Amino acid sequence: MKITNCEECTNYVYDDENECYCCDVNLDEDEMYKFLSGTFYNCPYYDRYDEYKIVKKQN
To answer: How many separate domains does the chain show?
Structure first.
């Protein structure tokens, strides 16, 4: 089982309206329950933030 860290994911963004971080992916009901309960392991939407990946696209 791979544990994904939401805080390192590009989909984990700050929501100014709610003043908190949240997942930017439209999760279904089961996925949202797992996310809120802290048991959302092996997330299929996990995309690790990589600043070098952004730089490569600019070249």
So the answer is: 1
